[in-house]
Amino acid sequence: MTETLAETDVQAQINDFTQRAVQAAAIFTQYDQQRTDRIVRAVFAAGFDNRIPLAKLAREETGLGRWEDKVIKNTIAAQFVYNDIKDEKTVGVISEDHERGIVEIAQPMGPILGVIPSTNPTSTTLFKILLCMKTRNPIIISPSPKARTCCGETARICYEAALKAGAPEDCIQWVEGVSKEVTHGLMGNKDIALILATGGSGLVRAAYSSGTPTLGVGAGNVPVYIERSADVPFAVENILLSKTFDNGTICASEQAIVVESCLAESVKEEFTKRGAYILWPKEVEAVTAVVFDSEKGLMNANIVGQSAKFLAEQAGVDVPDNTTLLIAPLQKVDGEPLAHEILAPILAFYEVTDYQQALNLCIELNYQGGIGHTASIYSNDEAKILEFAEGMNAGRIVVNTPSSQGAVGGIFNRLHPSFTLGCGTGGHNITTDNITAKHLLNIQRIARRRDNLQLANFDMNLYLDETVNHEEIEKLFGRNM
Length: 481
Known about the structure:
The chain has two domains: 5-217 and 435-442, Aldehyde Dehydrogenase, Chain A, domain 1 (3-Layer(aba) Sandwich); 222-413, Aldehyde Dehydrogenase, Chain A, domain 2 (3-Layer(aba) Sandwich), CATH 3.40.309.10. With 481 residues, it is of the alpha/beta class. The strands form four sheets. The chain has a seven-stranded parallel sheet with strand order 10-13-14-9-8-15-16, with helices on both faces. Strands 5-4-3-6-7 form a five-stranded parallel sheet, with helices on both faces. Helix content is 42%, strand content 17%. Strand 6 (194-197), helix 8 (201-208) and strand 7 (214-215) form a beta-alpha-beta unit.
């Protein structure tokens, strides 16, 4: 079939991006740690100093969330990520174990494709650029069509700062015009070493099926269990802080509250006191029809990052003007739309009789669409906390902590601050880690000869003797095998 002009143009763009990135990689790999760290600091400074205009631009372009909260996201992506990685060795010898004869050497991977979502556009761009500069990997930013301007501006600011600090040309590039064909073409290009894929499930699946190594994410459907030993006002305050942050656009935000009957009324009262609105059954139906796309079996994309007041108005539900969160009491999980991930300030609410029922319900919610991601518990009973954690298939179990900020890390705990949260094999990812600089390095290992002295004094012919079993071998080796 004759190649069309459009196909030719797409391929030309892909070739241009990758050739420039490959040339940048060849230069970048020659940089030492000191020179690399100067570039990283310059990018951090530029990102941090522009955190407010970039946040406002992201809000204006995407229409999602609140710009004030996006400033905090940009701050985490710049300051907190920088502080987390700035002293890390990412060039040359990074560890030496003389006893074992092992020396580890860090090498860059090569050009990286950074796929950026509309929910956290500028912060995710800052985050991925910082990690790539720290590991001497050129990056090509491919933003969501809904966030191309703000992502492009973020990348431009970082690139200019990097160049002034001595970075190689084209170490940071970004796709303008946002073509799906260009993005998918880059994914499968042989010169792309790795894809950092943050975004919707379809896009992440496309990255994984491209044949290029990918660090991706999974959906979040975070259950939050308020156990009977919890401090109820504290728990409610923290859940509100998390779920209303940037109007619920962080995938690690809470999706369903699970509470024992003995605490249910006090929890509801505390939420109501703090501006939440408890929906009546008919109102739950009306809101469900607005926030969930029954044909696609997913949340309605048009409600992502919108306010609780907006959701209520769209559903024809009259709520007070100061309403910050909608709470929908539910009876079941299976077949219940609001038991799925909804990236907006609405929470399902389940009342259970005891701890075991609560644990079972949280597991069911976890498997409804958030396997491997995050689970939350408020409790002062260490045994219950551990049992809860062991029962959940989640990479992060946040305890007495706002789930959004807790999973991202760096504020309420010592998790690596990250805007790419691995969900393990349950979420079809390779790791449950908060992705950071170490994940963007190839590690060489020099292995010097260290003879196994047990083998040196061992009759190897015994391995060929069928009458010799494992117990005899263990005795000969002193069970130090």
